[in-house]
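We emphasize that the prediction below concerns an isolated chain of 527 residues; any contacts that depend on oligomerization or on bound cofactors are therefore not represented. The input was used exactly as deposited, without trimming of termini.
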Amino acid sequence: MTNKIEWRIETGNNVIEGTESTEQQIIRVRHDAPKGIIKKITALLPCDMGDNERLFMNGYQTWTYCPEYKKTDKIRGLDHLPKFLIDKYSFDRYGDYHFIDYPNKPGKFHGFSYCYFRKGDKFRLFASLDESLGYTVFRYDSNKGVLSITRDCEGVEHSGGELTAFDLYFAEGSEEEVFDGWFAAMDIKPRTDKFLTGYSSWYNRYEDITEKTIISDLEGCRTLMSEGNLFQVDDGWEPAVGDWLEPDTAKFPAGMKEIADKIHNSGFLAGLWLAPFVCETDSDIYKNHSDWLLKVNGKLWKCGGNWSGFYALNIDNPAVQDYLRRVFDRVLNEWGFDLVKLDFLYGAAPFGTKTESRGGRMLRAMKMLREWCGDKLILGCGVPVMPAFGIVDYCRVSCDVGLDWDDKWFMHLFHRERVSTKQAIGNTVFRRQLNGRAYLSDPDVFFLREENIKLTAEEKNKLAQVNALFGGILLTSDDPSKYSPSAKEQYRELLRLHGAENVRVSADNVLTVVYELDGVEYKVELF
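Result of the prediction step, given as a token string:
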């Protein structure tokens, strides 16, 4: 590893420069800086990459596809798409496209909070220890052999005095050594070590759920699942995204407390899906509380094209905070749900302010969620990765899976956060180091069913095995009462597979997982 990092701080009309040795693992760049607007905080270090090495750059949020790259690969943004398509479907609002430049050239890469170079089973890890001043953005140019590091805090006011420009961790060694060392340096541990299995309603019925269908699915789950498993009601119970205080009474006339009670009476934990920081245009919130919505340059900030189109709430508005506090009190205390799956969380902080960076704002939003939820379980989803560390109990590490392998060909042209079973598997493998260190990872659901599915038997098996090996929560959207005897046996084997030993990943050519179970070695070639 190189022995010198050059850094530069620009605030107001002042420039401060210096160098730090990288001989130590923890590098803290702190310096007195005069009062002023932060223009730029950067660092550079030479970093060669061999032809047989691989590079991982962590994607912005949980859905962002981020495999290991060869030195001649490239990360594609949205420049190839017509502007009218981007504007119509808001493709640029799901990831980092509105604030990060994509050169779209071979050998140029970027990522957030951590990255690593891997040669065989040896890792060089470069990581942030604290994102409160701003996201730590790593950029690598393999043509020049230079790793640049920037703080995403341009425009934030510095009040004067000591400025912590960077808190970095550099390490070389085995996968276990470098990642154990990083999390020890951050003093972050997962909130729970409980491996959770169960059911989610989403990938069978999607939004088309009712009290009747949920009770039917609950009866199906009782035929195979065990006491203490999770039964999660996903999107579709609410009148509109953003309106959370009451269910859609046409679909759930007895109310959600009745649903939670029925889940508990079946011996399961009760989970409920919400997207707390956004609202769709069909919601009462959007129609009646426009002052609750986040405005950027005088315009409401659209977060994506799902539902009727959805927009960010302003988390600094006291009325928004009071509303969400009441929502969580009702869901968790009055209705009695044990877990909330909180989705589309990136909507809390698409921008920072004059006094707070984008990353600092996201971290504060996550801390508010933990305060509102108390000790109840949180499953995070659609969230920038590092601000969730140590705050949520379970967290998605991938995009949504699909009912087929990699969606339609033209969907490949869209954003990195698109639905794809193949890409979900990739992220689960390449972010495997977060499981059991930052939280327990959610690799999304697996399928064993024969109906309403386009995945082949081999593809379903790959997905299920990866989820069991690298996940801390193992959910399906199948109705187990419809399983054949062989499918039921496969389900039981998946639960055993979570206890596999000596799990290794080979990613130099074909992405392959090798593991041992009951003293027998198995190999799974993924893609």
